[in-house]
Amino acid sequence: MRLFLPIFAFLLFIEPSYGDDRVTLSLWEQDPPSVGQEMDKWITVFHKEHPKIRVIRQHYENEALRTKFLRSAATGDGADIVYGPNDIAGVFAKAAVIQPVDSWVKTGNVTATSLDMTKVDGKVWGVPLSEGAHLLLYYRKSQVKKAPETTHELLEQAKAYADVKSQRYGLAFYMSEPFWFIPFLGGFGGWPLAEKGKQHDVTIDTPAMRKALQYMLSLRDQWKITPNVCDFDCAKSLFLSKRALFHISGDWQLNDLHDTVGDDLAIAPLPVLSETGQRLTPMMGGRFLYVNAKTKGPRLAAVQTFVDFLGSAPVQKRIAEQLASIPASVSARKDPALKKLPLLQSSMEAARYARPMPPQVEMRAAWDGMRIMIQRALAGTETVDEAVKTGQKAAEEALAALRDPQPVLAK
Q1: What pLDDT is stored for residue 9 in this prediction?
Q2: Could you write out the DSSP letters of every residue in 126-148?
Q3: Would the pLDDT of 402 be above 90?
Q4: Cα separation of 156 and 243, whole Å?
Q5: Are 183 and 135 in contact (CB under 8 A)?
Q6: Which among 327, 356, 353 has a CA at the least distance from the CA of 341?
Q7: pLDDT at residue 17 is higher than 60
Q8: pLDDT in the model for residue 327
Q9: In contact, 209 and 217? CB cutoff 8 Å
Q10: Are 387 and 364 within 8 A, CB to CB?
Q11: Domains of the chain (ranges plus CATH)?
Q12: 254-272 b/e (C-beta count within 10 Å ≥ 16 → b)
């Protein structure tokens, strides 16, 4: 899947005026090391083309990046550019630490879906580089002749493969993390947020949420095709050791799993929920560039130059080939070379059934509430009805804090 191409062809570009001095931009990101190493290659080429602009990349873990940027940007410091997912747009926009990009992002060459993924209060806050981060159904072609189109077909194959005594399972996924629960909720017609005027309410205490939670529990308790509890590493390990027939995980694992499994690896969209006739609906995000609200003048011009470079055809093509990510660029998606990458094409097909992750700040409260709900139901400390009510209460408490935040203090 990973193809190593010659370094990008230089792009023809008329250098804007940044003054006599060099401009140094700071870029913060939160992705795995392999992505950071790939980004360094982009930056190296950019430096050769634009010697007056230097870009310094710095890695932080997810929550550390969010917290540090909120604190530092409030005092006029922090990164000029943050490279991250769409669900931080609402938090950063509400805190007024980033600036909208509607006026200068090249909307004609990126998909409407990617633009909408960082749209809050009618403004676009992030420049899209890629789409994806959606869940896929992984399996081996040597073990599964035809990918299941419905959950009934999946259950039949999974039950035939599972053997609890030998710790062999039909399905493995990160059971306690709500991102993996969302597809079941979507299959029952539910969603964690409901638009209400200019704000969004968390909708956890609903019939759809109860049905989805009960269904997920039944995979373990009734059909016995999953482990009792399984986190991200557990699910991945079971699949790689052939102790799980199917594996639900994100597109970000495509390269890693292909490196181990090889061409026997196959992916498919999540199946249709047989009980409702609706497809299991994962969330979809991507990677976006957010610009510090305090970045102005020559620095902002330099940022725009760098962003234009990342949105260029050679870089967009490389994002697809090296990171197995769906490019946000419409023209890059039509590149004949990308049509020859079967796993990427399958991932793009699966993304058609995904629903964009809400960028609104209220989604953070929904994640917190659903996480508590799932954990208590899996542990058996609360019934499904009790866990759903607990999750709604926890989300509403978190939502109150988010809507009336305390001032961000610099450390």
Answers
A1: 36
A2: -EEEEEE--EEEEEETTT-SS--
A3: no
A4: 17
A5: yes
A6: 327
A7: no
A8: 94
A9: no
A10: no
A11: 23-132+284-356 (3.40.190.10), 135-281+361-403 (3.40.190.10)
A12: bbbbbeebeeebbbbbbbb
